[in-house]
Design a protein that fits this description.
The chain is α/β, with parallel strands linked by helices. The chain contains 11 helices and 22 strands. It has 2 domains: 262 residues, Purple Acid Phosphatase, chain A, domain 2; 198 residues, HIT family, subunit A (2-Layer Sandwich), CATH 3.30.428.10. It has an 8-stranded antiparallel β-sheet, with helices on both faces. A 6-stranded mixed β-sheet has the order 4-5-3-2-1-14, with no helix packed on it. Strand 6 and strand 7 form a beta hairpin. The longest helix has 20 residues. It is globular. Belongs to the CWF19 family.
């Protein structure tokens, strides 16, 4: 059960008060999705109470980004971040996949009227990249929910009247193109200060294409508007992936033709060229290894193989990914080692200068999803890091949070050997977990995580360099910074001020210098330079 709302405009008490009232009357809801302007010109006083933790949103709330210059400052990280407890900024564009399998595509901002696009606007490139990330997935049928702030242009074609809104002039053509391609079951938008629930429309051509699910477009008014127009919408939805196919494609009696039919006819059918991400990956591998003094071939041709073996491609991301090495968004100055299937990078805003991440080069969400060859190289990196840190009088603590994350990140943090024992570390994690009603269980030393967690299962796990492991199956909410908070606590590293990475981020030149130093020191232990 979900709730969606229109422009909040900073009226946080009004919207959260209304949510509490609905929950008291109708039972709990899983999340609140906010489209349009979440912040307004007079937001600061109310927002300060939530930002500081004095007040808390009653349910997990997910918001889109700024639609104007005035509210840009409320969104510190374009890739999305937690703004306050229970309030999350989804990011510029992408797909949020809940633990239930529900897919929510989102696009922040308004359509750019100039180039380069302002930070509060999206361009044709943004839409194309979001479409490509989803449409390239095999057997793509559509997304469950699409969130945009602007209406799609021409949404009223073949439909019931939108009142005073002229749908042929209002809204964004790029959003129409996005909706036509992604085929959402629900599409929410705002900004026009009115409520409009369009009749459901088809996503297939009758007698020409196989029947597909319908789309319901719903525009919501602004919160607390004087005209009492509807601004909050309650609905129940089962993930498309969990539905019976026949039930999914049932057509309601009032279904209409697709308002973007003309767009669909005009859509190019030619094969897409090599994407920018692939070009960037090839270029990056060459440049990076040249600086290392060693160029590693990536296609087998320089090894003398006339017919190189084709490796199985990893799954593709369902949105822009900041950790897939081929992605332009990767901060490559932080990369310190590249293997065949994995790479090491310094953590941005690390707990210490040698806090590193082990990441798969391809797109995998968790350790459970890794192929055998990728898992083997992860194990090699762990062994190399153990030897490296032990040479410096340290032991490492590794943790993974497979919850509200798209790409596997194994956080590896060194702790001085003379500071605490491995037993101290375990006890600290367990004690602080109990304080937050988190049940951390010790699992056998040589057990594989895949033995205790199935694919798609949200979890958190800790691993010591002795092989000891602690595991928690996430069944509801989970503190995003829990692993860092425990390690930064007085009982271990005694640096509680560094629990939030955003408070620790350094300037790019300093980060680059730290990466060079780590790369130099790690070189004798780096198997990727010898393989």
């Amino acid at each position: 059960r979900r709730l969606a709302c229109g422009d909040v405009e900073g009226r946080l008490e009004a919207i959260f008060g209304r949510v509490r009232a609905i929950q008291a009357k109708s039972g709990s809801f899983d999340m609140l999705l906010c489209v349009g302007n979440f912040f307004g010109s007079t937001s600061e006083a109310e927002w300060a109470e939530y930002r500081t933790g004095a007040k808390k949103a009653p349910i997990p709330t997910y918001v889109l980004g700024a639609n104007n210059q005035d509210t840009l400052s409320y969104f510190p990280d374009v890739s999305g971040c937690e703004l306050a407890e229970n309030i999350t900024y989804l990011g510029r564009r992408g797909v949020y996949s809940g633990c239930s399998g529900l897919q929510i595509a989102y696009l922040s901002g308004t359509e750019a009227q100039e180039q380069p696009a302002p930070a509060h606007s999206f361009s044709a490139k943004d839409v194309a990249e979001l479409k490509m990330s989803l449409l390239s997935a095999p057997n793509f049928r559509g997304v469950d929910i699409l969130l945009t702030s602007p209406w799609p242009r021409d949404v009223g074609t073949f439909a019931n009247s939108a009142g005073e809104i002229d749908t042929k002039k209002c809204g964004s053509k790029l959003v129409s193109d996005l909706a036509a391609s992604l085929k959402p079951r629900y599409h929410f938008a705002a900004l026009e200060k009115v409520y409009y629930e369009r009749l459901p429309y088809r996503n297939h051509m009758v007698l020409q294409e196989t029947a597909q699910h319908v789309t319901r477009f719903i525009a919501l008014a602004d919160v607390g508007n004087a005209s009492k127009k509807k601004y909050l919408y309650a609905f129940s939805i089962m993930p498309m992936s969990a539905m019976d196919p026949a039930e999914l494609v049932k057509q309601p009696q009032d279904v209409t033709e697709n308002p973007y039919r003309k767009l669909r006819k005009e859509a190019p059918t030619s094969k897409a060229p090599l994407c920018a991400e692939e070009e960037a990956a090839c270029q990056f591998f060459f440049d990076f290894n040249k600086h290392q003094g060693k160029k590693r071939p990536s296609d087998g041709k320089e090894r003398g193989d006339s017919q190189p073996k084709q490796a199985k491609k990893p799954p593709q991301p369902t949105g822009p990914c900041w950790f897939c090495l081929a992605s332009p968004e990767v901060e490559k100055h932080l990369v310190v080692s590249i293997g065949t299937h994995c790479y090491l990078a310094l953590a941005k805003g690390g707990l210490s200068p040698d806090h590193v991440l082990i990441l798969p080069i391809g797109h995998y969400q968790s350790v459970v999803d890794l192929s055998s060859e990728v898992l083997e190289e992860v194990t090699k990196y762990k062994a190399a890091l153990k030897e490296f840190f032990r040479s410096k009088g340290k032991r490492y603590v590794l943790f993974e949070r497979n919850y509200r994350s798209q790409h596997l990140q194994l956080q590896v943090i060194p702790v001085p050997l003379d500071l605490c024992t491995s037993e101290d570390i375990k006890e600290t994690f367990i004690a602080q977990a109990q304080e937050q009603q988190i049940k951390l269980l010790e699992i056998p030393e040589h057990s594989d995580i895949a033995q205790v967690a199935q694919r798609g299962t949200p979890y958190f796990y800790v691993e010591l360099d002795t092989g000891e492991k602690l595991f928690h199956r996430i069944r509801g909410r989970f503190p995003l910074q829990f692993g860092r908070e425990v390690l930064a606590s007085e009982a271990l590293l005694a640096q509680p001020q560094r629990a939030d990475w955003r408070q620790c981020a350094a300037q790019r030149p300093e980060e680059a210098a730290q990466a060079r130093a780590f790369r130099r020191d790690f070189q004798p232990f780096d198997f990727s330079l010898r393989d």
